Amino acid sequence: MKTLAIRGATTVEKNEKLCILNETKILIQKIIDTNSLKEDDIVSIIFTMTRDLDEVYPSVAVRELLGFNDIPLLNFEEKYIKNSLDRCIRVMMHVNTHIEKDKIFHIYLNEAKKLRTDLKGKE
Length: 123
Hints:
This protein is of the alpha/beta class. 20% of the residues lie in helices and 28% in strands. It contains two helices and five strands. The chain has a five-stranded mixed sheet, with helices on one face. Helix 2 (59-65) links the parallel strand 2 (42-49) and strand 3.
């Protein structure tokens, strides 16, 4: 068993609580499903959001919508860079797994797909 990090990102249409929560839930669920993870596999989750998103923390989606209450979660504001992607939520999930590093799928959804065109996803 080893600990690996899985990256991902998504964007939201509007800076609204329900939009942020829904897109976060979709992103986290897709990471879990695509990588065949269980809740107990997840060590911690770190989120960042661009400064134009300020209605709710993405970790609320993990707690309230997915019901994961025993996973350490942390939220940060993404460093602002001129001309960077707007309304973006990024995640780094640390997991305990037997999966080999090259078999992990990093998930980028919506406009965030532009961030890592070098990665091949599992659709």
